[in-house]
Amino acid sequence: MKFVFLDRDGTLIEEPTDCKVDSLQKLHFKPGVFEGLRQLREAGYELVMVTNQDGIGHGAFTWEVFDEGQDFIMSELEKRGIRFYDVFICPHFLEEGCDCRKPQIGLVKEFIWENEMEPEDSYMVGDRSTDVEFGKNLEIRSVYLSNPRFPLEKGIVADYEASDFFDAVQYILSEK
Fold it and tell me: Is there a contact between 48 and 5 (Cβ–Cβ < 8 Å)?
């Protein structure tokens, strides 16, 4: 199967200045996301969301608060006929050192084996160095959404640097 793994915050939705989508008022889709995801699905790609969500369940960022935003995102996509094959969420802080936080692949390792991923036809799209490294760790191509707040760390190189989400989609579709 060919997959497009997608980060959530900063890729599908705007990243709030405090990096927490803890209310619906802070949730805004990035331009081109609906049309781009639709085009990927029509081209035969399965969509998989992989997101690091620091500290869900700690303090005011409860699972209920997180789920409200996540459910809204999935509902809005579903209304437009866009379905994700699967969603993976790492709730840990970086300092916890888990193996499921991007760029580690522990969260999806079993998934890619069970679903016989075609690495030569699969991609990772995200706005952070960890997303690019995650793609490299999966041995698939990575697309970095240019983000002045989170520029690529020195030595990390994406297969493609996109100016926006729709540009990333056009790159993937042109590589078929």
Answer: yes
Comparing CA positions, the residue from 56, 2, 6, 1 lying closest to residue 169 is 6
Burial class (CB in 10 A: 0-12, 13-18, 19+), 54: middle
Residue 64, sorted as left (phi over 0), alpha (psi -120 to 50) or beta, turns out to be: alpha
* 105-143 pLDDT per residue, tens: 999 999 999 999 999 999 999 999 999 999 999 999 999
131 included as an active-site residue: no
| Alpha-carbon separation of residue 30 from 65, 99, 145 (angstroms) | 21, 29, 11
Is 139:124 a contact under the CB 8 Å cutoff?
A: no
- Distances in Å between the alpha carbon of 158 and those of 9, 79, 88, 123, 148? 18, 32, 22, 11, 15
Confidence at residue 60, expressed as pLDDT on a 0 to 100 scale? 80
Assessment of whether the complete model's pTM goes beyond 0.85:
yes
Tokens of 31: 């331009």
Measured distance CA(33)–CA(36) in Å, rounded? 5
Spot the catalytic one: 9, 22, 127, 131.
Answer: 9
Helix (H) or strand (E) holding 110: helix 109-114
CA-derived radius of gyration, the chain: 15
From residue 46, alpha-carbon distances to 5, 38, 112 in Å are 8, 11, 12
